Amino acid sequence: MAKAISSVEMIGRLVAFDTTSRESNLGLIEFVRDYLDGFGVKSELVHDSDSRKANLFATIGPPDRGGVMLSGHSDVVPVDGQDWDGDPFVVRESDGKLYGRGTADMKSFIAAALAAVPEFCAGRLRIPVHIAVTYDEEVGCLGVRPLIAALARRAVRPRFCIIGEPTSMQPVIAHKGKKSLRCDVHGRESHSALSHVGVNAIEAAAEIVAYIGGLARRRRHEGPFDPSFMPPYTTIQTGIIAGGTALNIVPRDCRFDFEIRNLPGDDPDALVAEIRRHAATLLPEMQRVSAATGIAFEETNEIPALAASPEDTIVRLAQSLTGANAVGKVSFGTEGGLYQQAGIPTVVCGPGSIEQAHRPNEFIALDQVRQCDGFLRGLLARLVDGRV
To answer: Is 102 exposed, middle or buried (0-12, 13-18, 19+ CB in 10 A)?
Structure first.
């Protein structure tokens, strides 16, 4: 039988694994698998295509019915170039806080769930609890997709989901969606002194980027609006651009990446279609010079918005367990929209503040860890009584 580990000690163990998204997460996943196995809990691993990363899924309690899934991602953002006061992968406690990469986003929730495993195992649950640990959330919610596909093939899948992203232990029922796209503009190279026989890909790209900026301003000024979000409108921005080879060469190619973070109900595809239509108006002039020129768009990632109802059973459960009278909405994305899309009602509720995420000297307050422990003890009581 394995030894019980406190939430604080478990946070230290999980943070010690460098699971930056570019690295493998198998060390952490295998640790969690072995820890669960020590309590007689078997895990299913869902690997990526080259078996370098894996999701973990486990069930405690009756296997013939769906229960409440506690879900968190194992990957963290890089620490490169950040000014940390100590080793980011060694938890440091000071002034009632735990410092380390992933303490807020979001290994503390996973740690609290794992620390509660002995109590869940001893609890004679009438409704099961499921534990899910995913990979590559930070780079587009990539890992959860094969996990969801694996869950869909099971005879029994989770009935509800709680994602422990940092919300200061306040239930969150909605977040914005995100659609990421890449635009490649192909012009015609020429000497800059003979620009009339060239097609400047950078200038064509700049016209599209400017149009995207205007579309963003339109959303900012005209909406639609939802004051529960900050900012309360859909945002659109260009984040990366590259092109050209030398100042005296009319550039043949230019590439830029842009994103749309849409309010639930504000269709991002309609915005993309408008951007495409504008780009199409540039083609006749380009192709009069060379038929080989063109503009191509590629969707690189999409995370659907989460839009739960305050009346949903899982939302009411989270409110009851936290004592919160209200629910919130956030602008950052989670795996929640994908779970909801797969038919698993989801609420986001976890310890820590998103304001600390991705920053140097990331931390979580010990009081938040204690609140999360209490939340899970309350959930245990509900699962034992069958009152979900």
So the answer is: buried
Instruction: Report how far residue 178's alpha carbon sits from residue 276's, in angstroms, rounded to the nearest whole number.
Output: 18
Residue 195, pLDDT > 80, answer yes
Residue type, 268: P
The pTM is what? 0.94
Which DSSP symbol is given to 193?
A: G
Model confidence at 1: pLDDT above 70: no
Choose one of 283, 303, 323: the last residue of a domain.
303
133 and 185 housed in the same domain: no
Residue 2 lies in a domain: no
Residues 6+ apart with CB under 8 A from 216: 235, 236, 237
* Among the listed residues 3, 20, 11, the one whose alpha carbon sits nearest the alpha carbon of residue 368: 11
Supply the CATH number for residue 193's domain. 3.30.70.360
Environment class of 196 (CB within 10 Å of its CB; exposed 0-12, middle 13-18, buried 19+): exposed
Select from 273, 38, 70 the least CA-distant residue to 179.
273
Question: Both 21 and 154 in a single domain?
Answer: yes
Residues labelled catalytic: 75, 137
